[in-house]
Automatic annotation (TrEMBL):
<feature type="domain" description="Solute-binding protein family 3/N-terminal">
    <location>
        <begin position="38"/>
        <end position="270"/>
    </location>
</feature>
<dbReference type="GO" id="GO:0030288">
    <property type="term" value="C:outer membrane-bounded periplasmic space"/>
</dbReference>
<feature type="signal peptide">
    <location>
        <begin position="1"/>
        <end position="22"/>
    </location>
</feature>
<comment type="similarity">
    <text>Belongs to the bacterial solute-binding protein 3 family.</text>
</comment>
<dbReference type="GO" id="GO:0005576">
    <property type="term" value="C:extracellular region"/>
</dbReference>
<protein>
    <submittedName>
        <fullName>Glutamate/aspartate import solute-binding protein</fullName>
    </submittedName>
</protein>
<dbReference type="GO" id="GO:0006865">
    <property type="term" value="P:amino acid transport"/>
</dbReference>
<dbReference type="InterPro" id="IPR001638">
    <property type="entry name" value="Solute-binding_3/MltF_N"/>
</dbReference>
<keyword id="KW-0813">Transport</keyword>
<dbReference type="Pfam" id="PF00497">
    <property type="entry name" value="SBP_bac_3"/>
</dbReference>
<keyword id="KW-0732">Signal</keyword>
<dbReference type="InterPro" id="IPR051455">
    <property type="entry name" value="Bact_solute-bind_prot3"/>
</dbReference>
Length: 300
């Protein structure tokens, strides 16, 4: 026919509008990831059970499994089935600058979400909740925070635990020598070698270090919890499109019940490469997060 019917014309116009909407230009990190066909994930080297190396130098852990599911969601969102994943080892000291500069697109490790850090970067929905305590030799006599008076205490440099400890010691006017460790393994080694009387850090980190020791019964995790902290993935500020995908993926994992299985796998079962078991039961605080996913930090 020489002329198309009104209905056919209308259908064609509607189809054009739909295609225009579907082709909404990517912005921020998603645009960069699509253009480079690479997403860069920051990983920790020894942050058990969140993000660490196995014997083959492969990154594994509770947070890493979540990160890889986020990558799959991004692949679908930007239509990049062949998207490459590049892992970049980071430390507690350089992780925030690397996110700020765009060197890494996403970091899912054991990083705490708090108000101070949110001035520099953005955080996802909470993926875990921890508390800070002391790891010490069973024979040290340390059973509470006040017992560190006159002693040397190790803490991992660049962490919220270090900032809290220094502030706490100053305010309480305690005679305590603080030594900053480059990583968690070194912090515990200082206790093992007698260079520090205790190691102050997140309880899950302490449980992992204790479990790896050849004589783990020689050490105890003690003292009243000093802080409760929300662990989350870290991403650049002012990138709502990326945050939306990250949060949606985490919410799906948590509300579907998959998060309970992940927690059981990494916190309540033997984990590679040494088959250590942290034996950290799911807390009511984290259970509540699984039921109602949110990005609220515990210092709010």
């Amino acid at each position: 026919m020489k002329y198309m019917s009104y209905g056919v014309v209308l259908l064609a116009l509607m189809s054009g509008v739909a295609n225009t909407q579907a082709a909404t230009p990517l912005t921020g990190s998603l645009k960069k990831i699509k253009e480079n066909n690479v997403i860069v994930l920051g990983n920790r080297e020894s942050s058990v059970p969140y993000s660490y190396y196995d014997n083959g130098q492969n990154v594994i852990g509770y947070s890493q499994e979540i990160a890889l599911q986020i990558v799959e969601a991004i692949k679908k969102e930007i239509d990049a089935p062949g998207l490459q994943v590049r892992m970049m080892p980071i430390t507690a000291q350089n992780r925030i600058p690397l996110v700020q500069s765009g060197t890494i697109n996403l970091e899912c490790g054991g990083t705490t979400n708090n108000a101070e850090r949110r001035k520099q970067v953005e955080f996802s929905n909470t993926i875990s909740i921890t508390e800070t305590r002391l790891l010490t030799k069973r024979t040290s006599g340390i059973r509470s925070f006040n017992d560190i008076e006159g002693k040397t205490v190790a803490v991992t440099a660049g962490t919220t635990s270090e900032r809290y400890l220094r502030k706490k010691i100053a305010e309480a006017k305690l005679n305590v020598m603080i030594v900053a460790a480059t990583d968690h393994a070194q912090g515990f080694m200082m206790v093992q070698q007698g260079r520090a009387a205790a190691f102050f850090m997140d309880s899950d980190v302490l449980s992992a270090e204790k479990a790896k020791a050849s004589k783990s019964d020689d050490y105890i995790i003690t003292g009243e919890p000093q802080t409760f902290e929300a662990i989350a993935c870290m991403l650049p500020k002012n990138d709502p499109a990326l945050k939306a995908i990250v949060d949606k993926t985490i919410a799906r994992i948590q509300t579907s019940g998959e998060a309970y299985k992940l927690y059981q796998k990494w916190f309540m079962s033997p984990i590679p490469p040494q088959n250590i078991n942290l034996n950290l039961p799911l807390s009511q605080k984290l259970k509540s997060v699984f039921e109602t996913p949110n990005d609220v930090s515990l210092d709010d």
